[in-house]
Amino acid sequence: MSSPTVQLFRPVCIGLASLMLSGCFYANTSQAPIATTYPYTEQQRMQAAQHWEVLAQHEAAGILRSERVRFRDLHIPVQEHTLTNAYQGGEFERGFRTLLTSELVSGGGSVTTQPHPHGATINIDVEVVEHRDRGYVRPPFGTYTSLAGGVAVASIALSNWSQPALGLIPAAILADTTNGSWTHVGNEEIIITTQIVDEDRILYSSSNIYYINAGDRRHYAPHRVPQAPTIPSVSITDTW
Question: Where is the signal peptide (predicted)?
Answer without folding.
Answer: 1-27
